[in-house]
Amino acid sequence: MDDTDRKILLELQQDAGRSLDEIAKIVGSSKTPVWNRIRKMREAGIIGPQVVVPDAEKLGFEACFFVLIRTSEHEADWQQRFLKALRERPEVQEAHRLAGDIDYILKVRVKNARAYDVFYQALISEVKVHNVTALLSMEEIKSTTALAI
């Protein structure tokens, strides 16, 4: 990747819905070379799928919980069931396996606390967990998918 690729990628991270003409003008190039660079970055796996980022609150998903999970189970079978349960739950926006005292952290977006409880009850009915702590986000201060390239 050179500086032009980085400029293109920065622009795409801000708004991938902009026209090639707009992006080309901003990065100081023309449409065809910009398209070719984007295509090459897609082929190389640098650029993944383009998605729409909906406004969760405007759609009624007002509660964001960060769920800390500790488990005493570390067998492959348990882990497969746990990962399957997470992948099948649309409420789980992110899931990370951690080093340290907490085994997993989930970002769960739901309409309200009652919807979180439904999610929680379903999860613990499928897989055994040692301890679950749910932290309600009171305010989203920053949220981005952009990388500082």
TrEMBL record:
Record domain HTH asnC-type: where: 1-62
Keywords: DNA-binding, Transcription, Transcription regulation
GO CC terms in record: cytosol
Domain of life: Bacteria
Matching CDD domains: HTH_ARSR
Pfam families found in the cross-reference section: AsnC_trans_reg, HTH_24
One of the record's GO molecular function terms: sequence-specific DNA binding
A single GO BP: regulation of DNA-templated transcription
Descriptive protein name: Transcriptional regulator, AsnC family
